[in-house]
Every structure is written in structure tokens, then in C-alpha cells.
From TrEMBL, chain A:
It comes from Potamilus streckersoni. Homooligomer. Binds signal sequences of proteins that are targeted to the endoplasmic reticulum. Interacts (via UBA domain) with GJA1 (not ubiquitinated) and with ubiquitin; both compete for the same binding site. Interacts (via UBA domain) with ubiquitin and with polyubiquitin chains. Interacts (via ubiquitin-like domain) with PSMD2 and PSMD4, regulatory subunits of the 26S proteasome. Interacts with ATXN1/SCA1; interaction with ATXN1 inhibits polyubiquitination of UBQLN4 and interferes with PSMD4 binding. Interacts with HERPUD1. GO terms for cellular component: chromosome; cytosol; endoplasmic reticulum; perinuclear region of cytoplasm. Residues 1-10 have a biased composition (Basic and acidic residues). One of its GO terms (molecular function) is polyubiquitin modification-dependent protein binding. This is Ubiquilin. It is found in: Chromosome; Cytoplasm, Perinuclear region; Endoplasmic reticulum.
TrEMBL record, chain B:
The keyword Nucleotide-binding applies. Residues 5-165 form the UBC core domain. InterPro entries: Ub_conjugating_enzyme, UBC, UBQ-conjugating_AS, UBQ-conjugating_enzyme/RWD. Belongs to the ubiquitin-conjugating enzyme family. SUPFAM superfamilies: UBC-like. It is an enzyme of class 2 (transferase). Its EC number is 2.3.2.23. This is E2 ubiquitin-conjugating enzyme. GO terms for molecular function: ATP binding; ubiquitin conjugating enzyme activity.
Length: 573, 168
């Protein structure tokens, strides 16, 4: 080596030191008698960073500026580690994990993310957060709605049986996306890789969906699961196993759910269900008949939600028809709050998503047409569809009109509209015939109210399902089911509103909502798989899986999860 | 002979690590005269809670190395379920093959003579990112990690900040 020869002749010649960061590698030439400070100057130039940011590490030690290279025995050809600090590193680290897990929810205040199945699921719909759903007031409204619908299992059942929901649920892709975009769910998955794996198993997903789609089956399953669990407890060691399972799986999940939500329906379960009643049963076989949670006088422990009271509400609801719902206290308060909170309305109207959607819809009647015909409700009813098509551009124009937007953001105007609505409701119930073809500006607002409220409310109805499953049920299944129902209902809750309401305004708006949600859900599903999974394909190719077709198939089957795809590819070999 | 072998083996590993360093840590001797006491500096793996931290640890090799595993003791305070409060690392590959005092590890998971400083540190770094719940050496940390992730994040962030201050 010429260089080493030079060095021996004259002390001024340079040595080559490799400087390595986790990402890149550079060579620096420097005088062997130089100090660390001098080396840092050189390194700073190469990596375009200030000296304060540099941290050089050699042989397990951080190099101090005053030291010389000789002191540390840094010789030609050796490598020095470099860590480039960013100015606010510590801050970044703590923030990084939260922001990276839920990029689209960072704009919301943290307590909203913490709402277990309510807003979490709503925020789970990509873009919903930007609709202004993130305001704290919305939480309150939502909680009120939740309580309302908690007593109404019938509503959940109706929603689940709706063709629109079923269609959506039969697409595991959408479901997975919905779940993945729920920040709570994602946190859960990060902490419990088993759940992630479960979600990546299309077969299991399908089964879960099947289950969720069949409410009767779900109820039956929960019932029998309860019993199976309690029998398991009486086996020697079974109690310990259950306890462990509870600790390892259920608790983190409940904790995730419980954060910031004191009125958690699970709270009582965790207290009474798991400790006292289970412990009391330990060691003896359970020969009691399966308690029937639907019997009027059933013990409180088995069915925390009283479904009997629920049914009575249902009957009154259906008797009152659409306006039964409007007249319910929860609904009234929702409308009132909307009136009192112009900010919420404004947020909603100004959300880029809403605006973009409206523009695209008014610019492209074809699109609107398509959406309408895709909706099963309209497909079955050509007359209604025709009506829709005619009214749609008008409504859109109305919505885009700054004047009407101003009205919506004016609290007094909103109060006035609410009053008009109440009058309308009365009028409608007194003389329904009079109402045909009447489309005041208030109606879209009602539609909005209905859509927003029913989507939030049905969200909660899924919570009793989990509750009745009690602490023992395989929590994996429950969570996914819960999120499944929760997130999907918000799409489809608009449809029941449609069905009940004969008024065009409501139809218009709920249809628009439906389309919006569809757009959000299907955003990237229509892409060809090569495009959709391009990064994953690249990764697989880099790992040596060269059969591109097989890779695509595997990725499709695993919904884009590389690890699961690799498992599959290896198994198929 | 065994002493000779361990000395040569460690010397070779050290030279190799200085020439071709491995991601995530830097290794050297604590005392240039003593080949059996190493000093390593681990920098917190990116995209983990420990990112940005500099954690100093000592590796103490027995004369019987590589038949027996070294001990690893963190010198920097580090809050982690598998690192005891005194800094000693509890990881299955550093447990001697003979005794199964913990009763749950497979022989293949424990110390093997094929392990080098590099493989040990790669394991430790991956352990930082992914704590092992089954054998907590720091019960408090394990409990907080499991039950209160937010608090765990905070405690780790404190360690990371401290470790940075120590070198500034």
C-alpha cells in the first residue's frame, strides 16, 4: 500500500477511517495525530451535520472532542460508528410511537382516541376524523347516543341484517382496512402479535364475519362459550389457565379500551365477573342449567344489558316510525347540541373530504348515478332512484352554496331550523299525505342528524354483545367482531334511516353519506394487486421469492401482510 | 489450552468487530490489558422506545469461554423487563447450558459455544425492542410494560434522556 509507505516516511500523511451510521458509510481521510474534534469537522462536512449533532463511537466508547485518535488506537482502515443526533431527539422518540401508529388521528385530542368502541371505530373510517368528528363535543353527543341505543339490541340486529352491511362485511379486504385504521385496534395488535396474525388469516376473518353476520349464531355462541368456560374452570389447573389468559390477553385489551373512559361497561364485569363468581365456582363441576339471558327474570350477572327493556323501546320506536326516533330524548339533544355547536358543523362542512366529495359529485353526475344504482335499496325501487337523481344536483348545489353553509354555521339559524323541523314532524305525524315531495332545507339537516347519530349509536350496540360474552369468551374473536360491527355500522346505519324515511331530503343525504363512506373504504381496493401490493412484492422479491404470480397470490390471500405471505409461500413449496 | 483458546478467540472477535462493525453497537476492551473484560456501547435501535439512547454495558468472559457464556451488565441505567436493576441482562442465550434452573428454556435457546459477541449483542438489541414477558428480571418494569404502556414509554424515555446527558 502506497499510503502506508508514505506514512512511514512523513508524519503528515493521512489515514483512512471509515465512518458508519446505521444508514450510510463514508470514508474520511485525516491526520493520524488529529484530535476527535478535527475528525468531527471532517465528518460533519461529509454528512452535512453540525458538530454538536455528531457522536462518534469507537471500541465501545464515545469519543470526546479533546481526545486524540491515537489515544483510542484509531488506525488506518478501522471503522468508527457515527450517530447523528437530531436537536430534539428525546422529544421525538416519545412522540414517534404514538404519531406513527395513528397518523390520521393525531389531529384529534387524545381523549377521543381513547373512547373504546365508539369514536375509535368512527375514527377508524379513514377520513372520518377529518370530517370534524374530532371535537370534544361530539364525544358527549356520542356517549348520550350510546346510552340510548345500549337498550336497543333490536336496532343492532336490524343493522346487521341490512343487505348493505352484509355486502360490506363479506369483503374481508374492507374489514381489514377498517380494523387497521382504528388506532385502538392497531395499538392492540402491536402489543399482541397473535391478534395481528389472526387478522391476517383470511379464513378466520371470514368465520368471524360469518359470525357477525348471523346475530342469532353470535348470541348462541356467546351463551355456549360462557358455559364451556365455566366448565373449564372446574378442571384442575383450568382456573389458572383461564386466569393467565385473562391476564395476558383480556387485560391489555381492556386497559386499552378503558383508558380515558370511566363509564366502561366492562368495568363491572372485570370486578365481579372474573374474580368473585369465577372463584366461587372453582373446583366443582357446574351442573346448573345454562342460564337464559333472555328470560325476563334472568340473573343480572349473565346479562348485564337488559334486553327485555330494549324490546319495549323497539316497539315504541317502530310504532312511532321515523319520528319516534327523532322525538327520542337522545336525538333531540343531539340536534340541540348541533345547533349549539356551530364549530362542529363548520368543521364538518369545511373538511376537505366533504368539499372534494361534493365537487366530484356535482361535476360528475355519472358517478352519482352509479352510486345510486349500486345501492341495493334503490336498485329495488326504480321510482325512488329517479327521484333521487333529479334531486341530487339541487341538493349538492344547495350544500355548496356559501349562503346555506353560513346558515349551518349560524347557531340561531340552526335553532330556527330545528324548530321548523319539530313543526314538520308534528305536521307529518298528523297529516302524512301533505308531506309528499316537500323538500325544505331543514331536511338535509335532519338527514345529517340521522346519519351521524345512527352511525354513532349503532356503534355502541355492539358493546353489549361483548358484555354478554362476559370475561371468559375468547377475546380475540370478540374484539374483531366488535370492531367489525362497530366500524361497519357507521357506513350502513344510513341505510335504515333511508328505509324509514320517505322524505327525499333524508334519502339524499344518507345516500351521500353512504357513497362517501364507500369511497373511503374502497379507495385503494380497486387497484390491481400488482399496484396495491407493489412495496410488498418488492420486499418478497428481495428475499428471493422470484415467482411473481405466486407472490401476488400469496399477498392477495394474506391481504398484503408480508410475513403471512412468506409463511404461505414456504408452505406451498 | 482452554485459556489460550479463549484469549485468541476473543482477540480475533475484537479485531473483526473493529474492522467490520456490526449495526447497533460498538465494542472495545474495558482495560487494554484484559482481554476478558469488554466494554460495549449499544445505541438504542431505531423505531423502538430506546431510540436515541446510548447504553454502556460490560461483558465479562470466563476463562472457559466459549464453553461457558459471558455475563453482560449494563452500566447505564436502563428500564427494561429483562434487565435487572443492577444492570445484569437476563436472556436465555446467556444462561449456561447445563442447569435449567428456570425450567422453561429449551437447550437450544441457551448458551452455545457458537455464540460470539456479535450474536449476543444482536440478541440483546432485539430484546430491547421486544421484551420477553416470560422471564422478567425487573418485575416492576415487566408489570408496567404489560399493564401501563404509557407509563413504560415515559420511564424508558427518561432513561434515554439520562443516557444522552451522560455523554454530553
Amino acid at each position: 500500500m502506497a499510503e502506508t509507505g508514505d506514512k512511514e516516511k512523513s508524519g503528515t500523511s493521512q489515514v483512512k477511517i471509515t465512518v458508519k451510521t446505521p444508514k450510510e458509510k463514508q470514508e474520511v481521510e485525516i491526520d493520524p495525530d488529529a484530535t476527535v474534534k478535527e475528525l468531527k469537522e471532517q465528518v460533519g462536512k461529509k454528512f452535512s451535520a453540525t458538530q454538536e449533532q455528531l457522536c462518534l463511537i469507537f471500541a465501545g466508547k464515545i469519543l470526546k472532542d479533546a481526545d486524540t485518535l491515537k489515544q483510542h488506537g484509531i488506525k488506518d482502515g478501522l471503522t468508527v460508528h457515527l450517530v447523528i443526533k437530531s436537536a430534539n431527539k428525546a422529544h421525538e422518540t416519545s412522540a414517534a410511537s404514538s404519531s406513527s401508529t395513528s397518523p390520521q388521528t393525531t389531529q384529534q385530542p387524545p381523549n377521543i382516541n381513547a373512547t373504546p368502541f365508539g369514536l375509535g371505530a368512527l375514527g377508524g373510517l379513514p377520513g372520518m376524523g377529518s370530517l370534524g368528528m374530532g371535537s370534544a363535543n361530539f364525544m358527549e353527543m356520542q356517549q348520550r347516543m350510546q346510552r340510548e341505543v345500549m337498550n336497543n339490541p333490536e336496532l343492532l340486529r336490524q343493522t346487521m341484517e341490512n343487505p348493505f352491511v352484509q355486502q360490506m362485511m363479506s369483503n374481508p379486504d374492507i374489514m381489514r382496512q377498517l380494523m387497521m385504521s382504528n388506532p385502538q385496534m392497531r395499538e392492540l395488535m402491536e402489543r399482541n402479535p397473535e391478534i395481528t396474525h389472526m387478522l391476517n388469516n383470511p379464513e378466520l376473518m371470514r368465520q368471524t364475519l360469518e359470525l357477525a353476520r348471523n346475530p342469532a349464531m353470535l348470541q348462541e355462541l356467546m351463551r355456549s362459550q360462557d358455559r364451556a368456560m365455566s366448565n373449564l374452570e372446574s378442571l384442575p389447573g383450568g382456573f389458572n389457565a383461564l386466569q393467565r389468559m385473562y391476564r395476558d390477553i383480556q387485560e391489555p385489551m381492556l386497559n386499552a379500551a378503558q383508558e380515558g373512559f370511566s363509564s366502561n361497561p366492562f368495568a363491572s364485569l372485570v370486578g365481579s365477573g372474573s374474580s368473585s363468581s369465577i372463584a366461587a365456582q372453582q373446583g366443582q363441576e357446574n351442573t346448573e342449567p345454562l342460564p337464559n339471558p333472555w328470560a325476563p327474570g334472568s340473573p343480572a350477572g349473565t346479562s348485564p344489558h337488559s334486553s327485555t327493556t330494549g324490546t319495549s323501546t323497539v316497539t315504541s320506536d317502530t310504532a312511532g316510525g321515523q319520528f319516534g326516533m327523532f322525538n327520542s330524548p337522545g336525538m333531540q339533544s343531539l340536534l340541540q347540541q348541533m345547533a349549539q355547536n356551530p364549530q362542529l358543523m363548520q368543521n364538518m362542512m369545511q373538511a376537505p373530504y366533504t368539499q372534494a366529495m361534493m365537487q366530484s359529485m356535482s361535476a360528475n353526475p355519472e358517478l352519482a348515478n352509479q352510486i345510486i344504482s349500486a345501492n341495493p335499496l334503490f336498485a329495488a325501487n326504480p321510482e325512488l332512484r329517479q327521484h333521487m337523481l333529479q334531486a341530487l344536483p339541487q341538493l349538492l348545489q344547495q350544500m355548496q352554496n356559501p349562503a346555506s353553509q353560513a346558515v349551518m354555521t349560524n347557531p340561531r339559524a340552526l335553532t330556527a331550523i330545528t324548530q321548523i323541523q319539530q313543526g314538520m314532524q308534528q305536521l307529518y305525524s298528523e297529516a302524512p299525505d301533505l308531506f309528499q315531495g316537500y323538500n325544505p332545507i331543514g331536511m338535509p339537516l335532519i338527514g345529517l342528524g340521522t346519519a351521524a347519530s345512527s352511525s354513532t349509536s349503532t356503534t355502541t350496540t355492539s358493546t353489549p354483545a361483548t358484555t354478554s360474552s362476559s370475561t371468559d369468551i375468547t377475546t380475540n374473536t370478540t374484539t374483531s367482531t366488535t370492531t367489525t360491527t362497530a366500524s361497519s355500522t357507521s357506513t350502513t346505519a344510513t341505510t335504515p334511516a333511508q328505509g324509514q324515511a320517505g322524505t327525499p331530503g333524508v334519502d339524499l343525504f344518507s345516500n351521500m353519506m353512504a357513497q362517501m363512506v364507500r369511497m373511503m373504504a374502497q379507495g385503494n381496493i380497486n387497484q390491481p394487486p400488482e399496484q396495491l401490493y407493489a412495496p410488498q412484492l418488492e420486499q418478497l422479491a428481495a428475499m428471493g421469492f422470484i415467482d411473481r404470480d405466486a407472490n401476488i397470490r400469496a399477498l392477495q390471500a394474506t391481504l398484503g401482510d408480508v410475513n403471512a405471505a412468506i409463511d404461505r409461500l414456504i408452505q406451498n413449496r | 489450552m482452554a485459556i489460550e483458546q479463549s484469549f485468541l478467540l476473543l482477540k480475533k472477535q475484537l479485531a473483526e468487530l473493529n474492522k467490520n462493525p456490526v449495526e447497533g453497537f460498538s465494542a472495545g476492551l474495558l482495560d487494554d490489558e484484559d482481554m476478558y473484560k469488554w466494554e460495549v456501547l449499544i445505541y438504542g435501535p431505531p423505531d423502538t422506545l430506546f431510540e436515541g439512547g446510548f447504553f454502556k454495558a460490560h461483558l465479562i468472559f470466563p476463562k472457559e469461554y466459549p464453553l461457558k457464556p459471558p455475563k453482560m451488565i449494563f452500566q447505564t441505567e436502563i428500564f427494561h423487563p429483562n434487565i435487572a436493576k443492577d444492570g445484569s441482562v437476563c436472556i436465555s442465550i446467556l444462561h449456561e447450558p447445563g442447569d435449567d434452573k428456570y425450567g422453561y428454556e429449551k437447550a437450544s435457546e441457551r448458551w452455545l459455544p457458537v455464540h460470539t459477541v456479535e450474536t449476543i449483542l444482536v440478541s440483546v438489541i432485539s430484546m430491547l425492542a421486544d421484551p420477553n414477558d416470560e422471564s422478567p428480571a425487573n418485575v416492576d418494569a415487566a408489570k408496567i410494560w404489560r399493564e401501563n404502556p404509557e407509563e413504560f414509554k415515559k420511564r424508558v424515555a427518561r432513561c434515554v434522556r439520562k443516557s444522552q446527558d451522560a455523554f454530553e
